[in-house]
C-alpha cells in the first residue's frame, strides 16, 4: 500500500488526527510521470482512472484565472490546535494549472448584498502545498483565526462541500538553478509558498540550488508540517531548516525568540548576485525582516533586518 502523503504532511509533534484511511475510501498519493492511479469514494461509488490524457483534455487546466469555479472538498485533517489541511478534488484528466510559485484565490458569500444588488463575498489567497503536478487534487493548509471570516468558514466545511476558486495568481516564477542559493524566512502559514519551492527544487536532480529556511513560530506546537520539513532536510543535502519559537518548551532544542540578525547571518546565504531571499509571514514578521508590501501589493521598499545586513531589493522577494 502506498504511503499516505496526507497523513505524513499532517503529522507534526503530537498530532492527534490525520486523514482517515479505511475500507470506504482510498486517497491517491501522487500521480506523476505517466503512472496511472485511481481513487474510490463511498460517496459516489465511482472509479476515476488517471491514464494518458486524450487530445480533448491535453492542455486543459482545472483552474481559470478569469472565472470562479467550484471545487469539492474531499477530506480534512487537523495539523495543529488551530490549523487544518484541506484536500479538494478536480477532474484528474486535466492539469491543475498551478506553477511554482503561484497561489489561488478563494471566495465565499458572507451574506447580504451590495448597493448594486450583488452578493457580498470574502476573498482570500492561499498557496496549495501539494505538488502542482498532482492529478485530481490540491491541498490547502489553513490556520483558523477567531475573527477570520474565511478561516472560520473553512473550519465549518464538511466533505462534499464546495468552495469557489480562481487562479493561478502570479507570484515569483521559479526556474531550476535560477540562483545558486535561496534563503527563506517564514512565519506560521507563511511556510506554504516556501514548501512549494522547496519541493520543486529537491525533486529535480538537475537543480543544484542550495536552500536554507528559517521558520519562526509562537511555540513548538505551532510549527506546521515539521515532520515533512525534517524528512526533506534529512533526505536532501541541499536543503537545511532552522526553527525558532517565541515560547520554547522545557525540552525544546531549537532557537528561541524572534528571527534575529544573528540567525540570518548563521542560517541564510549572504548578500550577492547569486542569492535570493524569500519572505512570507504575518505583518509583524514582514515588517521586522523586510518591510511589508506596498498598499498596491507591489514589493515596496526593502527595510528591516535584511536591509541592515546588506541585502538589496533585487535579492529579496516578499510573498
TrEMBL record:
* Catalytic activity field: 2 Fe(III)-[cytochrome b5] + NADH = 2 Fe(II)-[cytochrome b5] + NAD(+) + H(+)
Q: What class does this enzyme belong to in the EC scheme?
A: oxidoreductase
| Binding-site list for FAD | 124-126, 141, 143, 149-151, 192
The FAD-binding FR-type domain is annotated at 66-175
Say which species the protein is native to: Asparagus officinalis
Instruction: Look up the record and name the cofactor or cofactors this protein needs.
Output: FAD
Lineage of the organism: Eukaryota, Viridiplantae, Streptophyta, Embryophyta, Tracheophyta
| Keyword presence, NAD | yes
Question: From the UniProt record, which GO molecular function terms apply?
Answer: cytochrome-b5 reductase activity, acting on NADH
Q: Which UniProt keywords apply?
A: FAD, Flavoprotein, Mitochondrion, NAD, Oxidoreductase
UniProt lists the family membership as follows: Belongs to the flavoprotein pyridine nucleotide cytochrome reductase family.
Location of this chain's protein in the cell: Mitochondrion
Please classify the protein's predominant subcellular localization into one broad category.
Answer: mitochondrion
Please state the Enzyme Commission number of this protein: 1.6.2.2
- One Pfam entry for this protein is FAD_binding_6
**Gene3D superfamilies (alphabetical):** Nucleotide-binding domain of ferredoxin-NADP reductase (FNR) module, Translation factors
The record, for InterPro entries, names: CBR-like, Cbr1-like_FAD-bd_dom, FAD-bd_FR_type, Flavoprot_Pyr_Nucl_cyt_Rdtase, FNR_nucleotide-bd, OxRdtase_FAD/NAD-bd, Riboflavin_synthase-like_b-brl
The name under which this protein is listed is NADH-cytochrome b5 reductase
What does UniProt give as GO cellular component? mitochondrion
